Amino acid sequence: MATSLAAIRDALETRLATVSGLHVYDVWPDQLDPPAAVIRPTIVDAEQCAGSSGIVLYVFEMHIFTSLAPGLPAAQDALDALITARGTGSIEAALLGDTTLGGIGRLIPLPWRGYSSVKIPENGPEYLRAIKDCEVWAA
User: Fold this and answer.
1) Which pLDDT band holds residue 53 (cuts at 50, 70, 90)?
2) Does residue 29 have a cis bond before it (omega within 30 degrees)?
């Protein structure tokens, strides 16, 4: 049976939920409770592996948000702690803790993308954000 997009999102949510204090959303919420991670699929490509036993490439963005309320330096420090490569508060370490996502696929974390500020929703509060891309290969 083919792995569903929802099942992969749930598996990624489970991995990110191992980061203490991080609020994880596998769909875009109406409001964020930072620090927060939102999982967003960007590519589903069956053609990538045509003839390879039905394996599909899924690419996800994980948007990581911290509050700007305490000021930009504190928001940057909070985001730095989440995107560090190691430690109990590391998103990278959480993802690498089970690269099979409970046996449903193969997770390949990709590099982080730069910081930016964003309002969620458009007229809502402003957050500091970094984006983590990852590939998931699943049947």
Assistant:
1) low
2) no
CB 58 within 8 A of CB 50: no
pTM, full prediction? 0.89
User: What would the two tokens of residue 31 be?
Assistant: 């409001």
Residue 85's SS3 state is: coil
User: What is the rounded CA–CA span in Å between residue 58 and residue 15?
Assistant: 16
The pLDDT assigned to 47 comes to 62
Q: Which residue has the tokens 């803790």?
A: 97
Res 120: pLDDT = 86
The answer to whether the Cα torsion of 70, 75, 76, 81 is positive or negative is positive
**Dihedral pair phi/psi, residue 95, rounded to 5°:** -65, -40
